[in-house]
Amino acid sequence: MLQIDIQVLEGVFDANDKERIIRSVIRAFSDAAGGKMFENTSCRIHEVPIGAWGYADQINTTEVGLRIKNDTT
């Protein structure tokens, strides 16, 4: 059984978003990997607490995550 773990910032994705992400990731992986991967792949989303994730000298916040998520450019 294959396990895919995804880490996201807390408070950025609601339950519907997470369900859509999980289903899409499993479908995409099984399409790429072939065989019986669809029924043998699980996916988990881990929410990282605010202040516990950063990059480029910036500590991520929910506001940063939402800004990135909602950027339509």
The biggest beta sheet reads: 2 strands, parallel
Q: Which series of helices and strands comes N to C?
A: EHEEEH
End-to-end separation: 38 Å
The overall pLDDT, averaged over residues, is: 92
Helix count? 2
- Classification by helices and strands: alpha+beta
The strand count comes to: 4
Mass-distribution shape: elongated
Helix content: 25-40%
Which radius of gyration do the C-alpha atoms yield? 14 Å
Which strand-content bin applies to the residues?
A: 25-35%
Uncertain segments? none
Provide the spatial order of strands within the biggest beta sheet. Answer: 1-2
Task: Summarize it.
Helices cover 38% and strands 27% of the residues. It is α+β, with helices and mostly antiparallel strands.
How would you describe this structure in keywords?
single chain, 73 residues, alpha+beta, two-stranded parallel ribbon, two-stranded antiparallel sheet, 38% helix
Summarize the structure in words.
The protein is an alpha+beta fold and 73 residues long. It has helices at residues 15-33, 62-70; strands at residues 2-9, 41-48, 54-55, 58-59. The strands form two sheets. The chain has a two-stranded parallel ribbon with strand order 1-2. Strands 3-4 form a two-stranded antiparallel sheet. β3 and β4 (58-59) form a beta hairpin. The chain is elongated and about 40 Å long.
Helix and strand arrangement:
Layout: E1 2-9, H1 15-33, E2 41-48, E3 54-55, E4 58-59, H2 62-70
Parallel strand pairs: 1-2
Antiparallel strand pairs: 3-4
